[in-house]
Amino acid sequence: MKTENRAFASARQGARTLLLMAGIAVAGQASAQSFCVFDPLGAGGDYYSLAKDYQLAAKRWGVNIDLVAYTDDDTLATAFKAGQCDMASMIGMRAREYNLFTGTLDAPGVMENYSEVREAMNLMASPKVAKYMTQGDYEVVGVLPVGAAYSIVNDRKINSLEMAAGHKCAIMQWDKTQKTMADDMHVVAVPTTLTQSGSLFNKGQVDFIVAPLVMYKPLELNRGIGSKGGIIRRPLFEFTMQLVTLHNKFPAAFGQQSREYIDQQVNHALGIIHNNEADVDSRQWIYALHSEVVEWDTAMRGLLAHMVKNDDFDRRMLGILKRIRCTDDVEEPECAPTPAQQQLK
């Protein structure tokens, strides 16, 4: 009898243990955070692959993450606003709504080359700027480069600011800064989304779009380029991918851990960019004349100053990026010391 009681007690204890383990498993599943990932190629793309590596890294920090792929950035933005994502990777222009400091990285003309991009990305992981990463309920927990934004045209004659005037250009319908740029360039702005801009271009409904070459294959932009068009090899600005979270959904240390991890992936991301640009048929590149580059730089500096007055961009970030540019090229006119600075020498 005693043997039976001991057996019964043991079985009961075993059942309790199983129930407890099941409860822990269910709780663990319930606490998983949803990460909505934008990748033009979906779950088969390079950026989704990076997100899978990130998912493994987050487990080491004690955070479980479920990945959800989005091929359309507009759909992802809607899902994030609706609370369907605890975190989301989005292009920097989208992230500007949640953090103006990091959103300014995608401003026109603020980074001239990938060396400057790498330095800026490294700075985003520094504890020195951590206080700028949270704005309201949101925190930016990582920034990756996506590539230079090039003008992709259906006619090689559209190769300067003067020649672009009067032509139709697709702009993001949610980004007022692109509308300001279009008006300043005297082009006809056609509001759309990033994904739909490719369809408009391929159908000839717009004459050019501005996009990074990560979008070249997914949007089949070679169809719109045809035999007469090309890609102007003069970056207008740099696209970034930014990880934005509802910061109260994550542990306090998560943001800095994430930013430092993402910084370690920047060289990988730059490799993806170089591969995308190398895949382009070399005959499609259109090289701008030096005079046209100077004209563009002058126009963008003036436009940027105007948009800063309207609080479209963050002055602190613009100051940081100017220091990076002037360290990279001290001969730039904007880097010349002011008369007051010269007197102090």
Shape: globular
The span between the termini is: 99 Å
Fraction of residues in helices? Answer: 40-55%
> Which CATH architecture is right?
3-Layer(aba) Sandwich
**Strand tally, please?**
10
CATH class: Alpha Beta
How many domains is the backbone divided into? 1
Mean of the pLDDT scores?
88
The SSE string, one letter per element, is: HEHEHEHHHEEHEHEHEHEHHEHHH
Report the sheet-strand fraction: 15-25%
| CATH homologous superfamily heading | Bacterial extracellular solute-binding protein, family 7
Low-confidence stretches: 17-30, 340-345
Helical/strand content category: alpha/beta
Count of individual helical segments: 15
Report the CATH topology name. D-Maltodextrin-Binding Protein, domain 2
Largest sheet descriptor: 8 strands, mixed
Global Rg: 24 Å
Notes on the structure:
This protein has helices spanning 2-30, 46-60, 73-81, 92-95, 100-103, 114-124, 161-164, 176-185, 194-202, 222-225, 254-263, 266-278, 290-309, 315-328, 339-344; strands spanning 33-38, 65-70, 87-91, 134-135, 138-153, 168-172, 188-192, 208-211, 230-246, 285-286. It is of the alpha/beta class and 345 residues long. The protein has one domain: Bacterial extracellular solute-binding protein, family 7 (D-Maltodextrin-Binding Protein, domain 2). Strands 1, 2, 3, 4, 5, 8, 9 and 10 form an eight-stranded mixed beta sheet that branches. A two-stranded parallel ribbon has the order 6-7.
